[in-house]
Design goal:
This protein is of the alpha/beta class and 324 residues long. The chain has helices at 2-24, 42-58, 73-80, 94-102, 111-114, 139-148, 163-175, 187-195, 206-214, 262-276, 279-287, 297-318, and strands spanning 31-35, 62-66, 88-93, 115-124, 126-131, 153-157, 179-183, 201-205, 218-222, 250-257, 290-292. The protein has two domains: 31-124 and 249-318, D-Maltodextrin-Binding Protein, domain 2 (3-Layer(aba) Sandwich), CATH 3.40.190.150; 130-222, Periplasmic binding protein-like II (D-Maltodextrin-Binding Protein, domain 2, 3-Layer(aba) Sandwich), CATH 3.40.190.10. The strands form two sheets. Strands 2-1-3-10-4-11 form a six-stranded mixed sheet, with helices on both faces. It has a five-stranded mixed sheet with strand order 7-6-8-5-9.
Length: 324
């Protein structure tokens, strides 16, 4: 019995040795953050900010590698297929890691099987906004407008299957209003359409909507975030507006390929935690509408599992399917 137990313990220790050995001198070469979008966007900007500080913390250069295309899935796929050694990571969002796969007939990857979550960088907040000339001044007012219009309302998004598309569908379902989705190729054209009155409302990121609200061109009716936003303390949450099941935010996080040794994952999480505690990093991310969270691998994995379940339900109910 003792011999069997000793053999089992030795086998476990032997299995851990490669990971421990790999982590002992990690990193000894540059690390890459793959971003699934072109340079200049919100995800890219946040990745570059974190990469710069992480490089100092790790003592190695952290390079941002933009691999755009297919709604971010090209970049994500490239990381899922790379060596799990901690040198190629994915700096991604819920759009390409959760929503894109569940809206395709053939998923390009499985978030919980093909990736290891390292650290959630933070939550991305959204606002329910309408043109300033809209008669509605609160959510119930917008619902009344929708019910009084024979053709219903129209809402814009960054594109079919985007985070704000699904939040819009969740809002439509929760309120029971007649609202048609109008997709655009990115945040800027979606915002221009809203300002021009081509659509009636949108769930826009706080960072993009706030300047237009301050300029008096848009009105913020509510936020789907669980708490009111610091910059708009008078704008209620949708829960406060009477829609208790309508809580939604985006997020950004760092992921490694499945099979990456646990000591390397922990080393990266610890380093990222130090970066995210820097006040200037928190301030600059806040300017981009990102609320720093810094949650670790296990807690993040639990959150992601819940996110997958929630958005699968919304996608199925709305009948959203992207072309493979």
């Amino acid at each position: 019995m003792q011999t069997t137990r000793r053999t089992a313990l030795l086998a476990c220790a032997s299995a851990l040795l490669p990971g421990i050995a790999a982590a002992s001198d990690y990193p000894n070469a540059p690390v890459r953050f793959v971003v699934g979008f072109p340079p200049g966007g919100g995800t890219d900007g946040a990745a570059r900010l974190v990469a710069d500080k992480l490089g100092t913390e790790l003592g190695q250069t952290v390079i941002v590698d933009n691999r755009a295309g297919a709604g971010g899935t090209i970049g994500a796929q490239s990381v899922a297929r790379t060596a799990p050694d901690g040198y190629t990571l994915f700096f991604g969002t819920g759009a390409e890691l959760v929503i894109n796969p569940i809206t395709r007939k053939t998923a390009p990857y499985d978030l919980l099987k093909d990736f290891v979550p390292i650290t959630e960088i933070g939550g991305v907040t959204f606002l329910l906004v309408v043109p300033a000339r809209t008669p509605a001044n609160d959510v119930q007012g917008l619902v009344s407008v929708a019910r009084g219009r024979s053709g219903g309302l129209h809402f814009s998004s960054f594109g079919v299957g985007s985070t704000n598309h699904l939040i819009g569908e969740l809002f439509r379902s929760s309120t029971g209003i007649n609202a048609s989705h109008v997709p655009y190729k990115g945040s800027q054209p979606a915002m221009m359409a809203l300002l021009a009155g081509e659509v009636d409302f949108s769930f826009e990121t706080t960072a993009v909507a706030l300047p237009q609200i301050r300029a008096g061109k848009l009105k913020a009716l509510a936020t789907p975030s669980p708490q009111r936003l610091k910059d708009l303390p008078n704008v209620p949450t949708l829960v406060e507006a009477g829609f208790g099941d309508l809580v939604a935010e985006g997020w950004m996080g760092v992921f490694a390929p499945a099979g990456t040794p646990a000591p390397i994952v922990q080393r990266l999480h610890q380093a990222l935690g130090k970066v995210l505690r820097l006040q200037d990093v928190q301030d600059k991310l806040a300017d981009r509408g990102v609320k720093v969270t810094g949650i670790g691998p296990q807690e993040y994995r639990t959150k992601l599992a819940a996110e997958l379940q929630k958005w699968r339900h919304v996608v199925a109910e709305a009948g959203i399917t992207l072309t493979d």
